[in-house]
Write a structure and sequence with these properties.
This protein is about 40% helix and about 15% strand. It has about 625 residues and is of the alpha+beta class. Among the domains are: about 230 residues, Endonuclease/exonuclease/phosphatase (Deoxyribonuclease I, Chain A), CATH 3.60.10; about 120 residues, no CATH class; about 80 residues, no CATH class. The chain is globular, with a radius of gyration of 31 Å.
Length: about 625
């Protein structure tokens, strides 16, 4: 475990700061430490040894008297650090770690004065890397949102936060999610005078997002200073699980893959039709996997080599005026191979992104590549709160919290099954007759053509794309297995349990609002669109609200999928009807209303007496 630590220690000579720093290094195996506000105008190697221990190299920016000062230290046996630039507000350089690679690290201490802090953004801007991972960490002395402050004066979106947001957006930088306390600084006062803020943070570039590391920042306990140390584990990774390979769509672009599939598929297999199908799929996937490893090099590397070779030939033509006939043929071949490689790379990224709305022009955008790479991390749970609100981050503790949660959630519920609303969406007799007919192989092929190429990898990593491309080879065995299933209604236990639907009947059973059941749409698409709109709105204005009438209240922060918003005229009859609807819904489904988290918002024209009656009927508090 190799960790990076940033800490505003408020004086590096303090004994308690040294003791705490050594404890952090020991517990988290830190190899790079950036200290801020050292309050040291000169630092000797002996002082570094006293502060953190032996075996550390260092570089520093002296303080101005007892103000400021930056000190960076790295474990010389495990890494090397080359300083690129420095100022009173940052030290930036390249940290080279064997087996992990090179990381550009900036240790930042932002000035409290906005106009001086702009020198920090300008200084960092010249060293923003897009070719390898970048981490900017430290105390920025700047808040980005009102949620990052508790106590004291009200947060205002002034020029300081706007400058920092502009710096992040223009350089395609991202904040890392964190574990631990929300606020990293406190004035340590009591009562109403106590102020807490999130001043310390870590920022990364898009290249870091696209790497395999699952980067999570930890806010460590605030000890020996009024700032939390913030820590990043560079080789964080998801728990090791048994890896299974999946069919790569780019394999089908090679004619040789058809010979591989045909040779393996024609080998004899024993058992029932479904067992034979499983055996052949397993054999085929294994053969394709080893065939691809022996025949193909990394596509990115192949792309770069082809571009270099093409450029060399074209430069030679420009110098000499002519190429030989062999060289002209070679140039044409290399250009054609490069075009094929670019198409395969596009297919490779698209398969990993698994988004259906991507157009051809979107497939090489930074957003698309980041989205595709981020899918590797989406199932990783770094930490979770238990029933008591305590944050746990160890694998076995996280598993226990999840198991206990679902045990409590999935208990037997007594639901009322009568008096349900009449279903207006149902099939007629003609539809039922269609469903009762025998399925033909042509219908199976037609249904297969309507599936998405990049979804639903089934047993042994076989996807719909596999069935589509090698259909002439595999259709006989697949059809035999399907026929047995349709006759016996007994599905092979190794088959993926997939819901079977008939596309042409779907419009008769759902409404347009049920986006997950409409072809070409998913819930994730809606979330992405909403996120983009919200991000744009935040940059344009401070308050994003919903208002249905001129006298109605503004409603904002509707960010949860299970929130329900009901609009109604403030009349007692309306409120009673709403209460009855909620009661019936709860009886039918077994769900319950979270009363403490529910609230009422009244328009300006509603008088106090009506408000009081409505609150008594529903039992919710008024949101003001």
């Amino acid at each position: 475990m190799n960790s990076i630590v940033f800490w505003n220690c408020r004086g590096a000579k303090k004994k308690k700061a040294s003791l705490y720093l050594k404890e952090i290094v020991k517990e988290h195996k830190a190899i790079f430490v950036g200290l801020l506000e050292t309050k040291l105008s000169f630092i000797h190697s002996k002082e570094v040894n006293t502060l953190i221990g032996t075996g550390w190299d260092f570089n520093y920016v002296p303080s101005a008297g007892l103000l400021g000062g930056i000190l960076v230290m790295w474990k010389s046996r495990m890494a090397s650090f080359k300083v690129i630039d420095s100022s009173s507000q940052f030290i930036i350089g390249d940290l080279d770690i064997p087996l992990i690679g090179k990381w550009r690290i900036a240790t930042s201490y932002g000035s409290k004065e906005v106009h001086k802090r702009r020198d920090l953004w300008i200084g960092l801007y010249h060293h923003i890397s897009i070719d390898f991972p970048l981490i900017i960490g430290g105390d920025f002395n700047c808040l980005l949102a009102k949620e990052e402050k508790k106590g004291g004066r009200r947060f205002i979106m002034s020029s300081g936060p706007k400058d920092m947001k502009s710096f992040l957006i223009s350089n395609n930088l991202y904040e890392l999610k964190f574990m631990g306390p929300m606020f990293t600084w406190s004035n340590n006062k009591k009562g109403l005078e106590r102020i807490m803020e999130r001043l310390d943070r870590m920022i990364i570039n898009s290249y870091s997002v696209n790497t395999n590391q699952l980067l999570v920042v930890k806010h460590l306990p605030r000890i020996a200073s009024d700032h939390c140390p913030i820590l990043l584990n560079l080789n964080s990774s998801s728990p090791k699980i048994s890896k299974s390979f999946k069919f790569e769509n780019i394999w089908a672009s090679y004619p040789a893959s058809f010979l591989v599939v045909q040779n393996v598929w024609n080998r004899k297999a024993i058992g029932s039709p479904s067992d034979m199908l499983n055996t052949k799929m397993r054999r085929t996937m294994k053969s394709l996997y080893f065939w691809s490893r022996s025949k193909h090099q990394n596509l990115e590397q192949l792309k770069e080599n082809l571009k270099k070779e093409i450029l060399q030939l074209q430069e030679k033509e420009a110098r000499n005026g002519l190429l030989t006939s062999e060289e002209i043929c070679l140039l044409k071949f290399k250009i054609g191979e490069l075009n094929s490689t670019l198409a395969r790379l596009s297919t490779w990224w698209k398969q990993r992104a698994k988004v259906k709305w991507i157009n051809e022009g979107d497939q090489n955008s930074k957003f698309f590549h980041s989205f595709a790479s981020a899918r590797r991390n989406v199932n990783f749970i770094a930490s979770i709160k238990d029933e008591l609100g305590i944050l746990v981050d160890k694998k076995n503790e996280i598993e226990e919290v999840l198991i206990q949660y679902f045990r409590n959630k999935w208990y037997h519920k007594n639901c009322i099954l009568t008096d349900w609303p009449k279903n207006s969406k149902c099939l007629d007799n003609e539809d039922i007759l269609i469903l009762s007919k025998d399925v033909s192989i042509d219908e199976v092929e037609e249904a297969l053509k309507g599936t998405s190429d990049c979804t639903a990898p089934g047993e042994y990593g076989v996807s719909y794309f596999f069935f589509k491309n090698y259909w002439p080879i595999i259709k006989a065995d697949l059809w035999k297995a399907i026929q047995i299933f349709l006759l016996t209604a007994d599905m092979n236990k190794n088959w993926k349990k997939t819901q079977i639907v008939i596309n042409f009947l779907i419009p008769k059973l759902i409404s347009l609002e049920q986006a997950s059941f409409i072809k070409g749409r998913t819930l994730h698409d809606h979330i992405l669109i909403a996120q983009e709109l919200l991000s744009y709105a935040i940059l344009e204005m401070e308050n994003i609200c919903v208002r249905i009438r001129s006298n109605s209240p503004r409603i904002s922060n509707l960010l949860y999928a299970d929130d329900v918003m009901v609009f109604a005229e403030a009349k007692i009859t309306n409120v009673k009807v709403i209460k009855e609807i909620i009661k019936k819904y709860c009886n039918w489904t077994g769900h319950k209303v979270n009363t403490p988290k529910s609230g009422l918002l009244f328009g300006k024209a509603v008088n106090t007496r009506i408000k009081r009656k409505i609150k008594n009927i529903l039992g919710y508090n008024e949101v003001k």
